[in-house]
Design a protein that fits this description.
alpha+beta, 2 helices, globular
Length: 94
């Protein structure tokens, strides 16, 4: 029961544009050195920057840490994620 309440809570902490800590993460959809796309309890989160690395990942706890230079963080809704997921991801990574 405690794990369920942890996964529903979403929090994003950004320290000096270098370290990002997120909770409420359901899945890491895609990542590379310039972008990290996460599915969270409140929608999709796209982190853009340079030299990005996923340094800690615990999907059981719903937590992810990303290190690197962060240029932007963008939230969007998850709409028809299953069937239209490919076109959604293509739009996010333009």
């Amino acid at each position: 029961m405690e794990q369920n309440s942890i996964s529903k809570s979403h929090k994003l902490t950004l320290d000096n544009r270098k370290r990002t800590c997120l909770t409420g993460v359901k899945d890491v959809v895609a990542f590379d050195v310039n972008q990290v796309l996460l599915e969270c309890t409140l929608g999709m989160v796209l982190i853009k920057g340079a030299d990005l690395k996923v340094t800690r990942l615990s999907l059981e706890k719903g937590e992810v840490d990303v290190d690197g230079h962060v240029d932007s963080v963008t939230y969007s809704e998850v709409k028809a994620y299953g069937e239209k997921g490919k076109s959604f991801i293509k739009r996010m990574f333009k």
